[in-house]
Amino acid sequence: MSIPTALRSYRVAAWITGIGLIVLVFVAMPLKYFFDTPGPVAVVGVTHGFLYMIYIVCTLILAERVRAKPLEALVVLLAGTVPIASFVAERMVTRRVRADLAPSERAADQPL
């Protein structure tokens, strides 16, 4: 898998995981604790957990491709557990990776 492909996969996983976590924390959890409706937490919680595992895999693949330091990769992995942090981490990682890419690889990653 090339760096642009790994970056694209990571970005999609980061956004999906971030949205899932926001829905879990700001919608499903209040429904459970304020309105005694535990159903959404079960569904959204399991879904977020599954999506977070995909996020972990995509993050580790990207970190390996760009030879990120282990501590940097760990911080990015933990960003998927804090609401809104995955979006911030995604922007920072994307800027850093795109800045490090060769011009030919950068062109392949840009949308048409």
Features:
112 residues; 5 helices; 0% strand
Describe the structure.
This protein is mainly alpha-helical and 112 residues long. The chain has one domain. The protein is 84% helix and 0% strand. It has helices at 3-35, 39-66, 70-79, 85-100, 103-109. The longest helix has 33 residues, at 3-35. It starts with a helix and ends with a helix. The mean pLDDT is 88.
Set out the fold topology.
Elements: H1 3-35, H2 39-66, H3 70-79, H4 85-100, H5 103-109
Helix pairs in contact: 1-2, 1-4, 1-5, 2-3
Q: Main beta sheet: strand number and arrangement?
A: none
Q: How big a fraction of the residues is strand? A: under 5%
- Name the overall outline: elongated
Q: Given the structure, what is the number of helices?
A: 5
Structural class of the secondary elements? Answer: mainly alpha
Rounded to the nearest angstrom, the distance between the terminal CA atoms is 21 Å
Low-confidence spans: none
Indicate the percent of residues in helices. Answer: over 70%
Rounded Rg: 16 Å
Q: How many separate domains?
A: 1
Mean pLDDT over all positions:
88
The counted number of beta strands is 0
The helix/strand series, from N terminus to C terminus, equals HHHHH
